[in-house]
Structures are given as C-alpha cells and as structure tokens.
Write a structure and sequence with these properties.
globular; about 40% helix; 7 strands; alpha/beta; single chain
C-alpha cells in the first residue's frame, strides 16, 4: 500500500474512488494537517503505487477494509476518521460496519450508505440479498448500453481505457463535473458500444478551475505506470466485486452503522441525481449518528476537488464535533 501523510495528531484516513488516486485529496491534506490532525491519503488496492491484483475476488469489502486497517497498523494508529469518495466512500462505510472499534467517524463524499438495494421489489421479495448485481446489469443492457454491465467482462474495458488513457480521464472528469454532462446511456445500444462512446468531449479545454494539464499528466502517468493490463484494474474490479459483496457481505447497506457520520455531495453530481436520489431519504434510518447531509453548491461528482474550500470547512466542522 502506498500512502502519503502530512501532519500530526488524530488520524484522518482518505480513500479515493474511480478514477482517482491519493492525489484526489491534495487540497485536503495540508488543511487537515494544519488543523492538528494526521492526514493520510492512500492509493487504494489496484491503483497508483499500491499493488494491483488481477482477480475481482480480491476487491471485496472485507479485503479493502483489511487493507485500510493494515495501513493504520503500519503507521501506529489505533483509530481514524475514514473519509471516502466514490468507491472509497463504499470502503469508508464498510470500515464503519466491519471495524467499528477502529473508526471514530465516517465521512462519505458522493455515495450514500445503502445505495443499490431492492432494485426489483417484486422479484426480490423475501430475499435478503435480492438479485445478483451482474444479472440486474445484464437485464438492463438488453435495452441499452450500461457501463456496469460493460465492465463485467474481463478484457474489453481494460484495452479500451488503457489505449486511450488520457482521453478517458479527461472525458470522465469533465462528464461528472458540475460543468459537464453525462450522456444518456439509453441512446446507445449495448452491442458495439464502448465507454468512450458515451463520454462526450469536454466543452472547455484544459485548464479548468479545478484541474490543470499538470494534474492530468500526473493521473495518466500513475495509472499507466504498471502497463495496460493493470492500468485501470482497480476501478474495473470494484465494479466486478459487486457480485463478491452480494455474496459475502449481505449486511452492507442494510445493517446499522453506529459511529458518527457525515454525508457530502456535489449539488450537481449526476451520480446522485441519476443513480441514488432516494437514498438520501433512507440513509438516516441506517445511520444511528448521522450528523449532517450537505450538498455542495457548484460541485459535481468530484466535490473535494471542484469546491475544496466548502468540503474542507464541512470536514473540519465534523472533525471538531468529535474532539
């Protein structure tokens, strides 16, 4: 595991999502350190300078939580507030669920707790787990392209994204930002469509207010450092591990989490608007100490980068409540 640390004091562990790196928290590390905390940002399993296993079975929730606890062990930290974004938010929630004695609090950016359950209430009636995720995605993909289905097959997505790494990263960062637009997947057939086909070219050239050419250069270099086969394996296997979690972690998203929690999300995050709007209503029933739900103005999916000051202020306020 590769980790970047700054400051001394109570530990705050930052977990990025896809497509991110420890670098996704570059605006948070110095601020949190200056406030008297030990800020720790990791390259998650499958990313950057951390090992990149090929098998999706190596990316289940419990394995990711063990990674995070191992980082704390290596750094001599008994507890931490875990802050996560995207799949890193899933890891943060899972840490609060599976390692509650080591988690002082959870802050999620963009992903509410309990997303994606009971997709088909009639079909899932009486089933604790409901329908297998990959089966659900395959059914949807009969009608139109769905990236969650496209990513399930090993090979095509690896090749497409690695062969167009810079183009992919620039397009996805724009599409999910407050200023971008994610094309409607329903306009594309599943057969013969790749992920880049549903990601439009940015309407504004770099640099953007929150992402520079140098930032993008670093992201491309770090993703491609181990070669095309594993360039984007961390993110792709996080999608493929949804079946692993369905099988091995049925309590995730259903069981209550008792540690203090905060949910932050860009007000213009298409993921929240399209995938999980109702989760904001159900999340408080699953979190016994939810201390806030804050929508960050003028931010999309990458709120901690698009509007770092607002995210930092909310994060510091939450940390101060735990002092």
């Amino acid at each position: 595991m590769h980790a970047v640390t700054q400051g001394e004091g109570p530990a705050v562990l930052f977990c990025h999502g896809f497509p991110g790196l420890w670098y996704s928290w570059r605006h948070q590390l110095p601020v949190i350190a200056e406030a008297g905390y030990r800020a720790i940002a990791v390259d998650m399993r499958g990313y950057g300078r951390t090992d990149r296993p090929l098998a999706a079975t190596d990316y289940g929730n419990q394995t990711i939580v063990a990674d995070l606890m191992g980082v704390l062990d290596a750094l001599g930290e008994q507890q931490a507030v875990v802050v996560g974004h995207d799949f890193g938010a899933q890891a943060a929630w899972a840490a609060g669920l599976h390692a509650p004695d080591r988690v002082r609090g959870v802050v999620s950016v963009a992903v509410p707790y309990g997303v994606g359950f009971a997709r088909d209430k009639k079909k899932d009636a009486g089933s604790r787990r409901g329908t297998k995720p990959s089966d659900t995605y395959a059914a949807i993909a009969k009608n139109h392209f769905l990236h969650l289905h496209y990513f399930q097959k090993v090979g095509p997505a690896e090749a497409e994204l690695a062969n167009n790494a810079r183009l992919f990263l620039e397009r996805i960062y724009w599409a999910l930002s407050a200023r971008g637009s994610l094309l409607d997947f329903k306009n594309f057939p599943a057969e013969g469509t790749g992920y880049l086909d549903v990601l439009a070219d940015p309407k504004e050239p770099l640099p953007w207010p929150w992402l520079s050419e140098e930032d993008l250069d670093y992201l491309v270099e770090e993703y491609m450092r181990t070669g095309p086969e594993t360039a984007f394996i961390g993110g792709l296997n996080s999608y493929r591990a949804m079946d692993v979690n369905w099988e091995n972690d049925p309590d995730y998203g259903r069981a209550k989490i008792e540690c203090p929690a905060l949910f932050l999300c860009g007000a213009k995050d298409p993921v929240l608007q399209i995938v999980s709007p109702k989760s904001l209503e159900t999340m408080p029933t699953r979190l016994t100490d939810l201390r806030g739900i804050e929508l960050i103005p003028n931010a999309g999916h990458f709120a901690q980068q698009e509007q770092p000051k607002a995210v930092n202020n909310a994060l510091l306020h939450f940390l101060n409540t735990l002092a």
